[in-house]
Amino acid sequence: MMSYVHRTCLICGHSPWRRRFPDAVTQNCRYPSQICLRCIRKWIHVRLEDGTSWNQIKCPGTNCGQDIRTYVLPEDFARYDVLATKAVLETDPDFHWCLNPKCRSGQITTGGGNIFTCSDCGFRTCVGRHATDVPLYVGETCEDYEKRRIHKAEEEKSLKLILQESKPCPGCQKRIEKADDRSCDHMTCSNCGYKFCWLCLADFRWIMHTNNSAHQPTCRHYSLSGKKGSGDEVD
């Protein structure tokens, strides 16, 4: 039952005449609601949109701990219904959602190996062989996917190592790798011929034109001593 009374909503702070307040949000509420109907509906909507606490929507006013569905809007109830159905389906270990981003279907799979083919869109998924279901390319088997996964992991590992062991040339941005830590820090790019210090990337032509103060202050070759044109060959 709704009362048209002059109250101040604890959430929005509004208290115009005829703002609707539920007499009680749930049957267990002992006092009239201090939260207006609009804010209750908005609160339910936010909890449903979150998707993680949809089944724990309790009375926000008196901590009575009861579920509230009386005041939900039709579109929010539809959202609740979808989440509830999804939760029930996901308790079945044989149920799998289609991994096609354009498809929202799913089905129970029994038998037929590790490949699940969506009955709605035909998208193929490998199930049961990995920690999570994985999408398959057209014509790909679960074994093919495993080879592709290992190859991709090896490529990513190699790329990470290259990024760790190499630096971009300041002249052309092509990545350059130093032979070892004991080799000279005076680098010459094989692609564009740019000369620079490996440690601080300072232009070596400017170093030779001035002195070692052309290095970055944090570089171990940096020095304020020396006359113009006395830049040292970095070792």
UniProtKB/TrEMBL annotation:
<keyword id="KW-0808">Transferase</keyword>
<dbReference type="GO" id="GO:0016567">
    <property type="term" value="P:protein ubiquitination"/>
</dbReference>
<feature type="region of interest" description="Disordered">
    <location>
        <begin position="215"/>
        <end position="235"/>
    </location>
</feature>
<keyword id="KW-0479">Metal-binding</keyword>
<keyword id="KW-0862">Zinc</keyword>
<dbReference type="GO" id="GO:0008270">
    <property type="term" value="F:zinc ion binding"/>
</dbReference>
<dbReference type="InterPro" id="IPR002867">
    <property type="entry name" value="IBR_dom"/>
</dbReference>
<dbReference type="Pfam" id="PF01485">
    <property type="entry name" value="IBR"/>
</dbReference>
<dbReference type="InterPro" id="IPR044066">
    <property type="entry name" value="TRIAD_supradom"/>
</dbReference>
<keyword id="KW-0677">Repeat</keyword>
<keyword id="KW-0833">Ubl conjugation pathway</keyword>
<dbReference type="InterPro" id="IPR031127">
    <property type="entry name" value="E3_UB_ligase_RBR"/>
</dbReference>
<keyword id="KW-0863">Zinc-finger</keyword>
<feature type="domain" description="RING-type">
    <location>
        <begin position="5"/>
        <end position="219"/>
    </location>
</feature>
<dbReference type="Pfam" id="PF22191">
    <property type="entry name" value="IBR_1"/>
</dbReference>
<dbReference type="GO" id="GO:0061630">
    <property type="term" value="F:ubiquitin protein ligase activity"/>
</dbReference>
<dbReference type="InterPro" id="IPR013083">
    <property type="entry name" value="Znf_RING/FYVE/PHD"/>
</dbReference>
<protein>
    <recommendedName>
        <fullName>RBR-type E3 ubiquitin transferase</fullName>
        <ecNumber>2.3.2.31</ecNumber>
    </recommendedName>
</protein>
